[in-house]
Amino acid sequence: MTIDELIAIPWLIALLIFLARVADVSLGTFRTIVVFRGHKMLAAFIGFFEIIIWLVAAAQVLKNLNEWYLAIAYAGGFATGNFVGMWLEGRFAIGEELIRCISCNRKVISDALRAKGFKVISIDGDMGNENPIEVMFIIEKRKKVPEVIKSIKQLDPEAIYSVSDVKNVYDGVNPVKPRSFLDSSWILPNKRR
User: Fold this and answer.
1) pLDDT at 186 over 50
2) Using CB atoms within 10 A of its CB, is residue 22 exposed (0-12), middle (13-18) or buried (19+)?
3) How far is CA 73 from its chain centroid?
4) At what angle do helices 40-63 and 68-92 cross, to 10 degrees?
């Protein structure tokens, strides 16, 4: 079936443009998040397919500007693609996150998390009124963060915690291997000179 034959079936070409736009914007959203996390090769691979899909969809809309429903399908695909892209990235959960936790129950949370296999760095402190606190830093894969948060809430419902993205992690145990110049992590961590 040619494009001219598809134009004769308005709902079909509109559906195809909508689906193509959902695909390319989903890939674009996912690619942007992957770039932020430092995965350059994956981002380049995704970007290649993203732009091919975009070119095909945009060309059909631009060739048929008098068909208003194609512009609506194009815009609707864009809006839906943003949502789908964020959902897709959330399902893959690429990268690590830093969980900072403050608890007034010194050693309770950190010991329990260590017993579950999580790496916890803890620092004892006080809030100025001689109430002892424990400040914890936990870097964990994004897929495991909900488990860490659930444990924190169970162990100390009054604990304060925050979660933030981490671009690169150097743990001192696993050596950093040099990689291709296209990969974001090819540069070794700075050493004192």
Assistant:
1) no
2) buried
3) 27
4) 170
Mapped to the 3 state alphabet, what secondary structure does 115-147 carry?
HCCCCEEEEEEECCCCCEEEEEEEEEEHHHHHH
What is the spatial order of strands in the sheet that 120-126 belongs to? 120-126, 132-141, 96-103, 160-166
123-134: pLDDT as tens digits? 888 777 777 888
pTM, two decimals, is 0.61
Can you tell me the distance from the alpha carbon of 118 to that of 18, in angstroms, rounded to the nearest whole number? 44
Q: Per DSSP, which regions of the chain are E strands?
A: 96-103, 120-126, 132-141, 160-166
3-state secondary structure of 44: helix
> Quick one: which H or E segment has residue 111?
helix 108-115
Q: Which residue has the tokens 């195809």?
A: 16
Separation CA 103–CA 160 (nearest Å):
7
Tokens of 111: 């010991």
> Do the bridges between strand 160-166 and strand 120-126 make them parallel or antiparallel, or are there none, so unpaired?
unpaired
Q: Which helix (H) or strand (E) holds 153?
A: helix 145-155
